[in-house]
Amino acid sequence: MASMVPYRSVFGIRPTSLFDALDDMMDFAPSSSTRAFPMDVEDKGEGYEVKAYLAGVNKDDIDVELNEGRLSISVKVEEKEEDKGKNFLQKEFTSFSATRGIYLKDASNEGLSARYADGVLTVTVPKIVEKKNVTKVAID
């Protein structure tokens, strides 16, 4: 499984820790069963909008979870039985899985929504609304 938190370029951003550097190096490791997918994360003020570009993936093959501020998007595509045993001259689409995640420190578990259209998964994550319990005290 590929796990990249958040998506970044080895050459564009300096890693902040050894783990970030190792994670970046693993992004380029070849594997026939894992693929990375691009993701955009936008702060909309009242929440976040996360877009994952998953062209050719069925909605049923996507799993989205939010666990203590960590949003994870997982994809697992299995090769169809009808494709097995055919005489392909070239076959590039096979079974694969990928997971991407991002930590959103003030993400709320309430009001999450996701929609998938035209190969783009859009997850809307509201922020936790802090209630300010301010009481004015009269001075005698």
From TrEMBL:
Residue ranges occupied by any SHSP domain in the UniProt entry: 30-140
Top-level lineage group: Bacteria
PROSITE patterns hit by this protein: SHSP
Gene3D superfamilies tied to this protein: 2.60.40.790
InterPro entries referenced in this protein's UniProt entry, alphabetically: A-crystallin/Hsp20_dom, HSP20-like_chaperone, Small_HSP
Pfam families in UniProt: HSP20
Homology family: Belongs to the small heat shock protein (HSP20) family.
Protein name: Heat-shock protein Hsp20
